[in-house]
Amino acid sequence: MPRVPQHVLKLLHDEAVAESPYQHIANAVQMLFLAEARVAELMMPPDELLLDLIRRAEARCFHAIFELGREDA
Predict the structure, then answer these.
(1) Nearest 5°: CA angle at 49, between 44 and 50?
(2) Could you tell me which residues come within 8 angstroms of residue 65 by beta carbon, excluding any fewer than 6 positions away?
(3) Is 80 exceeded by the pLDDT of residue 3?
(4) Residue 68 burial by CB count (10 A; 0-12/13-18/19+): exposed, middle or buried?
(5) How far apart are CA 4 and CA 21, in angstroms?
(6) CA distances, 56 to each of 3, 20, 60, 65 (Å)
């Protein structure tokens, strides 16, 4: 897996670290946000189907984060 350039993403680690399921999903959401921005930046016009798939994945991750938060409460 290629390393994530530091100027692009400073919040995530390139290698796997000990994280809770919540932290893994939160990091996945950050990666999806970056992917969405890159698609919009690199593709003129942006691929609407790809953006829709990324947004649906984001929504599923947010739902999982919400459910994990409810289990911890």
Answers:
(1) 70
(2) 22, 25, 26, 29
(3) no
(4) middle
(5) 21
(6) 25, 23, 6, 14
Nearest to 46 by CA among 62, 8, 54: 54
pTM check: above 0.85: no
The secondary structure element, H or E, covering residue 51 is helix 48-72
Cα pseudo-dihedral 9, 11, 16, 18, rounded to 10: 180
Q: How far apart are CA 40 and CA 62, in angstroms?
A: 21
pLDDT tens profile 16-59: 667 888 888 988 999 999 999 888 888 888 888 999 999 999 99
AA identity, residue 50: L
